[in-house]
Give the backbone structure.
Amino acid sequence: MGKVGIIGVGQSAFVRGYPGSIRELVFEGFREAMQDAGITTKDINASVICSAPEYDKQRSPAGVFAEYLGLTPQPTFYVETLCSSSSMGVRLAYSLVASGLHDMVAVVGFQKMSEISSAESQERMGRGADIQWESPFGTMMPAYYAMHARGHFAKYGTTPDDLALIRVKAATYGQVNEKAVYRKPVTFDMFSDPENSMSGPVASPLRVGDCCANADGSSCVIIANEEKCKAFSKKPVWILGLGAASTSVNMAGREIFSGLTVGMQAGEQAYKMAGITPKDIDVAEVHDCFTIAEMMAYENLGFAKPGEGKDLIRSKETYKEGSIPVNVDGGLLSKGHPIGATGGSQIRTIVLQLRGEAGPMQVKDPEIGLVHNIGGVGLYGNVTILGR
Amino acid sequence: MAKEKKELDVRFGKFGTVSFTSTTKVNDFIDRLEKGKISGTKCKTCGKVYFPPRADCCKCMGKEMDWFDVTGKGKLLTFSKLEYAPVGFENDVPYSIAVLDFGDYKVFGRLSSDIPDSEVKVGMEMTVVANELPNGQLNYVFQKA
């Protein structure tokens, strides 16, 4: 089996209230990836369409978008694992290419969250949990992650201030990422200013500033076999490792509230497949839907020992100039989190970093990058390791 | 002769402020809740304990279950107070969701609304009691032990 790589990446700007239909939004990420790869639609053998359901009215989106993207009559199908849908799509595309079934596959992620209100969005996200036994209590994503923040605080002495530092870092890079939905700075003092919206309560101990920005967006990753990668790309980026895991949807079935087991398991699998250790990672994108999620990712991926994630952010080691730069594109917190598009966008960021094309966000000469993408409240976990 | 229409057993629609499931093979959970009991199931074949209750055992593939009641004290593992609610729960705000550890199983639910925030601490012992909601629906809440 030859190598499998990435020859094209693209994403739309992540925005609030995209002024167009979903298929048009999807085309934006796709066009950028196609132009990046320098290919035509005839070169693509199959498409994998990824999103979380119920944010829009379109049933069975794969066929509709494949037609609009010019990818018919090639096979197309839909993949869904909530917020990690497009990372799971990349995992599937890898297997389609590695098996020899296809030479080149497009993974297209999208979400148009602005079609519904914020409260409706929370209701749908809450139903990404256990609708029989938990949703009737009135659950939503921020509260589930808040329960993990509380668990982390209780076990390790982490504080709301530590979480605020993660938000400040995200905003540092959101300001220089022209694709980000939130371009404004966030200062540490905003969290202690009752007049500032960042300090507003959402679900204790998480505040408004701890939560990512909903957005509309699309992403696209073009995956190809070794021969096609070498033929089409001067700088192919190789998929070195893949990991994926799942766990109990109900919080009553969880072993711990200080970390996400799916992140640990997916990370271990991906490191093993790539034959590397956490120390070998030069730049990472982790799933920071909430500040606590990034804190747990530091520890679950082995960038810090359990309980020592706070030391990484306090010493700024996850900034661009630090020992392990994390989310230097603004992350989900500032770049935005259009659910189904997020994994593809994270992969795009790492591909650009490894090619040395990340502009003002560029980390110095990275060789290996990691993408950590979580679906639901640690229900699904994907880790993808990429190398030059 | 017209066939008699079989009535669907929709007892589970009574669970929680808003229920998203009307029927389940463990509908008896609701009858037990009405009697003040919060119950899980235990596989008759292999003895595996389930909370929330299940009709099917994924360990031995069994489908015969016994009910058991959640009794005694559980330890508060974590909680969060919601200041903002999803659609359908606006009238309940603020409320806290939490998880209790009973050793053999854990229970997800709400904290009783009469406990002051300052008295809620991870690790504290709590009990679980059945609760009727203002809209006539049923759930269960955690109280200080």
Remarks:
- The mean pLDDT of chain A is 97.
- The CA atoms of residues 3 and 38 of chain A lie 20 Å apart.
